[in-house]
Design brief:
heterodimer; A: 176 residues; alpha+beta; Glutaredoxin; 2 domains; 5-stranded mixed β-sheet; elongated; B: 471 residues; alpha/beta; Rossmann fold; Ubiquitin-like (UB roll); 3 domains; 4-stranded parallel β-sheet; 13 strands; 15% strand
Chain lengths: 176, 471
């Protein structure tokens, strides 16, 4: 997977039948209103397909009986949803006060240096930076709710705490 | 985190099983320990009697606002014709707070048992756990625990033969702090942008999820419901202090030797005891400078200050008393009396090596990022406060920037639909009030020669400048 820096959103690939069956199952968790399933369906699509490609809003809207705009406004609001591929492994570094006191800005620098990620183009509307080989991507996120073990980060779904040294970062990157 | 033992002064109630030797988060460990016995007891009681026990217990919500749980439940009419819903607010995201994480990961059945009891009390047949998106493992643990509870007949149809039916589902958020605000959470659960609703009329207990009566409670609050049923409300009310009953999980982070989570009877100790006896005091050679006592929205306190409080005299009259910082009792009312709040229990400590302008800027960036954008004062103001503190940190302050900051903050609080307006202004107001000299010094005119505006000076080569321009 290569890094995408343009504003173009790659298309949503066909949704595999197995994934669609899981999506149909989670929709039953919302017996009063299918619309409630929007976030859950988007999570499943992103987890399995890597990002929410162009056409996601139409697919989800058709599935839930909504207008595409109803899905689009959700995708664009919530920070965890992305419209472009991230790296093969996505790193989230906590930026907020307790972690910043514990060295989270230095942690971000260490990750970028060791994984050779250039964050200079990252900004509020496109916060994710990807390494040239596509193996890692990184972003700052707000409080991850583990302030007592600062600094903390997530790699994919895995959570790591007390990761304030060069050695820790090397060790973490080796795991993936 | 490696396992740690409770401090001798702790009283572990909701954190009883956190870090417990030999403990696992599966249902067998929970059942071996008498798990779900309190549910059996609850189901033998009348729902209204449980609500009354919770009222007697004087339990106050643990999410931040400290509202009476029994009063909240009492808003649901026993003869309500619409369906009633219950939502567990597990969107733990107030900076400085990290308690629900451990309950969810290590003791999910305590939460589920508390939820089933609470649902029975308010007659809710459908409940959701709204868990923040950044807890994917927590969501999986809860889903497994729900399946186990189902298999044992603690959830589903006709729970333990009582005739009471309940389904609980886990719903994941997606990285937005505003979803912790209960009406924003409800909008989010309805599949929309989490724009908070205006109150009145949208009090959740009246017009909540799907415009039906809805109870939204924090994880720790719902766990307490289980203990109240076991002990009885009157017995529970003996823990802690009047109007500040029960235990409280305090989360300490920042510049102390031993940060962590601790559960105490509410009001059982003072700020000084927490910081020095429990957390080992400041790092070697340092002094504690500032403490945010209840999550980043709570007003900052100066560690070298004494606070004027009102105390009741033996004859019933009120008199002023000066209270040193270290003697502040950690409960809802005492922290409110010194001008801050107990909030979510997140205590953030900063020592004398810290730049208060930098610290406030970090907080400002958080709120600028998290404002939902619905109300103009907050959407614009939170960004302006960040921009101003950005340039102060970058050494490009403009004369009067300290007053500018305060002016923006003063025009947000009280002018927004939800409490986010207060949450983002209180840090600014309190940092400027407590550390005026730090901000005055930073607000001297530092503009480089020839630059007309601070923004123009924030060129890409200047630290923070690029990010500031991007906004």
């Amino acid at each position: 997977m290569s890094a995408v820096h343009s504003d173009e959103i790659p298309a949503l690939p066909p949704v595999p039948a197995e994934l669609e069956a899981r999506i149909d199952e989670v929709i039953t968790h919302y017996p009063v209103s299918k619309r409630s399933a929007v976030l859950t369906v988007l999570h499943l699509l992103q987890e399995n397909l890597g990002f929410l490609g162009a056409g996601t809003e139409d697919w989800v809207a058709a599935k839930l009986g909504l207008q595409p705009i109803n899905v689009y406004e959700v995708i664009t609001f919530y920070p965890m949803f992305r419209r472009k591929p991230a790296g093969k492994n996505h790193i989230r570094v906590c930026r907020t006060l307790s972690c910043a006191l514990g060295g989270s800005y230095q942690l971000m620098e260490r990750f970028c240096q060791q994984a050779k990620i250039d964050r200079s183009h990252a900004h509020h509307h496109d916060p994710i930076a990807v390494s040239p080989d596509g193996k890692f991507s990184i972003e700052f996120v707000e409080c991850l709710a583990s302030c007592g073990t600062a600094p903390v980060c997530m790699i994919n779904d895995d959570f790591y705490e007390n990761v304030g040294t060069d050695e820790k970062v090397t060790e973490l990157l080796k795991k993936y | 985190m490696s396992r740690r033992f409770p401090h001798p002064r702790e009283r572990r109630l909701v954190f009883k099983n956190v870090d417990r030797e030999g403990w696992t988060n599966d249902i067998q460990a929970y059942l071996n320990d008498g798990g779900y016995d309190d549910l059996r007891k609850a189901l033998s009681m009348k729902p209204q009697d449980i609500v009354n026990e919770v009222k007697t217990s004087q339990l106050r919500g643990r999410g931040g606002a400290g509202f009476s749980c029994g009063v909240k439940w009492g808003f649901i009419r026993p003869d309500e014709k619409k369906p009633v819903y219950l939502i567990c607010n597990a969107d733990e995201s107030e900076p400085g707070t990290f308690k629900d994480r451990y309950i969810i990961h290590q003791d999910p059945h305590q939460l589920i048992e508390g939820m089933v009891i609470s649902c029975y009390a308010v007659n809710a047949r459908l409940a959701y756990i709204y868990i923040r998106g950044e807890f994917p493992e927590g969501a999986r643990i809860l889903e497994k625990a729900i399946a186990e509870a189902h298999a044992h007949g603690f959830l589903g149809k006709n729970i333990l033969g009582s005739g009471f039916d309940l389904e609980i589902y886990v719903h994941r958020g997606a990285g937005a702090y505003i979803c912790g605000e209960e009406t924003g959470l409800i909008e989010s659960l309805e599949g929309k942008r989490p724009y908070p609703r205006i109150k009145p009329p949208y009090f959740p207990a009246v017009l909540g999820l799907y415009m039906s009566p809805t109870i939204v409670n924090n994880v720790e609050t719902l766990c307490n419901a289980k203990h109240i049923v076991r002990m009885g409300g009157a017995e529970f009310a003996k823990i802690g202090r009047p109007n500040n009953t029960g235990t409280r999980v305090l989360c300490v982070s920042g510049d102390v030797q031993k940060p962590g989570y601790f559960e105490f009877e509410v009001g059982a100790l003072t700020m000084g005891e927490l910081l020095y006896d429990i957390c080992g005091g400041p790092k070697p050679g340092r002094k504690i400078k500032a403490v945010i006592p209840g999550g980043s929205s709570a007003k900052v306190l100066r560690a070298d200050e004494s606070y004027k409080i009102k105390v009741k005299q033996p004859d019933g009259s009120m008199a002023d008393k000066m209270l040193p910082f270290n003697d502040i009792v950690l409960d809802f009312d005492s922290l409110a009396a010194v001008g801050s709040m107990a909030g979510s229990g997140g205590v953030i400590v900063m020592d004398d090596s810290r730049d208060m302008v930098w610290a406030l800027n970090n907080i400002n960036e958080f709120y600028a990022h998290e404002s939902c954008g619905q109300c103009t004062p907050c959407r614009e103001g939170s960004l302006w406060m960040k921009k101003i503190s950005d340039r102060l940190v970058a050494g490009l302050g403009v004369q009067g920037d300290d007053k500018n900051l305060l002016n923006v903050a003063d025009n947000i609080a009280g002018r927004t639909i939800c409490a986010f307006g207060e949450a983002c202004s209180w840090p600014v107001q309190s940092f400027l009030q407590k550390f005026p000299d730090d901000f005055k010094a930073a607000a001297k005119n530092h503009l480089p020669e020839g630059a007309r505006t601070a923004l123009e000076a924030l060129a890409p080569e200047v630290p923070h400048g690029r990010e500031a321009l991007a906004h």
